[in-house]
Every structure is written in C-alpha cells, then in structure tokens.
Amino acid sequence: MQTSTVAPPVTLYHISLCDGTALFLHPFMKRGALLQVTSATPVEGLFGAEPRVEALTLLRNELYRKIEEDVRDWINEKRFIPRFLIASGAFLVVFFFLALVVHTPIPLVDELLGSTAAGVITFLAVGRQFERSRSASRRRLSLRAKIDGVVFQEDPFVQRLELVVRRLERSEPTLDSVIGGEDTRLLWEEHPDHAARVVELLRLQITQKPYRILSKAMKQGNLPGNLAQAVEEGLLHPVVVLLYHEMRRTAPR
Questions:
Q1: Selection from 6, 8, 5, 4 nearest residue 43 by Cα
Q2: How far is CA 21 from CA 41, 125, 199, in A?
Q3: What is the Cα–Cα distance from 77 to 72, expressed in whole angstroms?
Q4: For the chain, how big is the Rg over CA atoms in Å?
Q5: Is residue 25 within a helix (H) or strand (E), and if so which, with residue range?
Q6: Does this UniProt record's set of keywords contain Transmembrane helix (predicted)?
Q7: pTM metric for this prediction
C-alpha cells in the first residue's frame, strides 16, 4: 500500500513593527527558491496584526520581480547548450565570411573582432528569445498564480512574536541588549516548528550584504552615519538582527 506524502508548506510571515512598517519573512529572498514551488506545494501567509493592503501589494510586486529573475536563470541554464551552439555557429559563419569574402586591411584581427561580436549578439538575442518561450511563460504564470493564491491568516504564533519584536525595538540597537527573554522561550515551547522556520528565515535575511554590514556594526556597538541613515529611512531594521540572536539564544539545546 502506497502512502502519499504531502509537501511541507511554505510560510510567509508578516510582522508589524512599532511604527506600522510591515516586515515580511519568507524563503523567496534566496535566489532560485521560487523554482522549488510546485503545484502541490502549499503556500500560506500568517500575520499577527492585520497587514495593510499596500504592504501586501508591495510584497506581491517584489515576488513577481523575483519570479522573473528565477525563471530567467532557470531557462538560461536549461537552454545553455543550444544557445551556446547557435552563438558558436554564428561566430564561425561570420568568421569564414569575413576571411574568404571580405578583404580587410588587417587580416585575422578584423575577422576575430567581427565574429566575436556576432557570437555575443547572437548569444544575447537567443537568450531573450528563450525567455519568451512557451515553457518559460508557463513556469512564470504558474508561479504568479501560486503567489496570487496566498491567503494571509491571523496566527497566535505571529501575535506572540510581534510582542517580542516590540520589546526588542525599544532596546538599544546593539547585540548587548539581547537578553533572551521569557516571552521568547515561550515561542519555542508553544510553537517549536514556526520558531525554527523563523530562525532560518532570519538567518537568510541577515546573510544578505546590507544586513551583514549592519550585524557587524551592531556587534561593535556603533552605527556609522550611512547605516544610521538607512535605519532611519526604514531600509534596514536592527530588530531583525536582534530577533535572530535572541531566538537562537533561547532555542532548546
């Protein structure tokens, strides 16, 4: 007797910050992660405080952009060999045409330059054609439909998580302020699966270059002017780094 396995859900978390800014945690910030989503993959959204419509619209537009990037990478990798062969063919045709038919003042150099340019142009043009192919369009539409079908629901884990976030927002933006509070330990006790997912998503977030720089500055206890300005403009959120370290500190051993 065969047992059917259900794909684990992909969860998007909406966290409301003190100033009303929406912070989304999801695995799709990793390049190529959207390609792992199939028609059988459940995708869910969870929130504590109800998200604003404009925040969800910005998230959807961001994911649409990531879909374009991931599908472009996928189709270019899948069709690399025929794309390379076509470009190589163009290189050879132009090279022999210039060498045998067109007499140039500098033999060989002009042929190499002209045929290389033809090969590069062909490689790029064929790539754009593949990106508009039927298989790429189907993949793109399938992923967009998956994103459009995400429904955000109120969840007690995210509600408790937002309480932790608000406490951390009121603390100093340094790692010395991470104390590992009792409210964070309750997250692990009552919602261990969600807590583990959030830690992994936070890890993905802080390994991105801007947050790596911010984490280093917070460890030193001093934010230089450019980072302070990015934080002031809402481009970076120190609470992301604080929450990651606090949840890791309170994780069960």
A1: 8
A2: 29, 42, 20
A3: 9
A4: 25
A5: strand 22-25
A6: yes
A7: 0.81
